[in-house]
Amino acid sequence: QVQLVESGGGLVQAGGSLRLSCAASGSIFSINSMGWYRQAPGKQRELVAALTSGRTNYANSVKGRFTISRDNAKNTGYLQMNELNAEDTAIYYCTMRVSTTRRPDNFYDYWGQGTQVTVSS
Questions:
Q1: Alpha-carbon distance 48 to 39, whole Å?
Q2: Per residue in 22-72, pLDDT tens?
Q3: How many angstroms separate the CA atoms of 24 and 45, rounded?
């Protein structure tokens, strides 16, 4: 009943910025929390940032550079990425914990398809 679509990835030079978007659609009643993960080739999937009950959490490698946010009216999450470097190159995935109108008190995790971010040195 819920779909997530990421966008905003692309190629950027080191030191540049990108803003990723994650648009949720479907029979949404409430979004409890959201997060961004990334995975580089040959590496483990890494939690980049999370937003829960107004609190944020960031991986040490992105603190001070990335900002997670959400627009409730648009059911859309964002990841603002500044001062990008080559180690930020990865596929970025959005996830949201969502309840539906059919079952407002039951939350489940949904995932987007991922968007590629490539940072050139």
A1: 10
A2: 999 999 999 999 999 999 999 999 999 999 988 999 999 999 999 999 999
A3: 22
Whole-number pLDDT of residue 54? 87
58 contacts 38 by C-beta, under 8 angstroms: no
Smallest Cα–Cα separation from 48: which of 33, 66, 31? Answer: 66
- 73 CB contacts (<8 Å, ≥6 apart)? none
| Residue-wise DSSP of 48-97 | EEEEETTEEEE-TTTTTTEEEEEEGGGTEEEEEE-S--GGG-EEEEEEEE
The amino acid present at 120, given as its one-letter code, is: S
- Residues 42, 87: Cα–Cα separation, whole Å: 13
Cα separation, 66 vs 90, in Å, equals 15
3-state secondary structure of 9: coil
